[in-house]
Design brief:
Largest sheet: 4 strands, antiparallel
Number of strands: 16
Shape: elongated
Distance between the termini: 179 Å
Strand content: 15-25%
Structural class: alpha+beta
Radius of gyration: 69 Å
Amino acid sequence: MQKVYQRINWENYPSEDTPLNESNLNRTDYAIDEIDDRVIALDTQKANVNDISYLVQNVTVDDSTGVITLTKYNGSTATIQTTLNKIAVNFTYDYSTQSLILTMNDGTSATISLASLIQNNEFDDTATVDFTVDSNGHVSAIVPEHSIGDEHLRTNYLADIQVSEANAAQSESAAEAHKFNSEAWAVGTKAGTPVTNTDDQYQNNSKYWKQRSEAWAVGRIDNNPVPSTDMSYENNSKWWSDVAKSYKDASESIKNEAAQLLQTATDRLTGLNMVINYSDGCLYYDVNGGIILQVDQATGNLLYGITS
């Protein structure tokens, strides 16, 4: 519906902007007539109080119960019971009863049996497989120890195992022979029996050479002196070391004796009054002390004497 009247905003005399004339009066007359028609139309079409008293004025919803309350214009109310408070918000499954348990929005629960819909499988243990079922219906299987036989293996696997068994038997025999050979090379015996002189290990094994090394080093074998018939008898490192030590001790004794003689000669050389040089040596002669010293240039030996 559009607006039908615009105000003239009348002004007092002596203003001439809003004259009281036919044009302005007819504008007012038209607007009054149009408004009057509209009022009559509204009155004719409007609803009376009795008609609207049962119309809904307000609507409220209780979230906890799901009940919708309608408030009417006459003040009366009406309620609508919904199933919003019965909406399932969670569920669990009871394996023992085969039931679906629904938890509702209001905290209550509902149980729905699924026994007729679910077919349980029965598992029977066998000689090769054992089954277990836990409280949640999970099935586990295990192979018992020593339950798998040759008939359960693939043909090529079984053949490989049999070949490996044969190879293992051969390796066992070879290992036994190697064990005795190792013993022979180590200590010169096989199963505790000394090897014969026809074997490569005869006097050619670790123990033999250890004993020979000991004999040549200290003249003993297993803490026992070697016999006089052994090549290392008085012909080993220790024997020669002892000989060298005895020579060293003798040389030390001679050296000390020579030093003493030289000191004695030096003490008596005081007052030398004659030196004679020869082609084969040098002669020092002390006529006062009767001492003669001569160095042999060929041998380097010191020759000395004391005259009367």
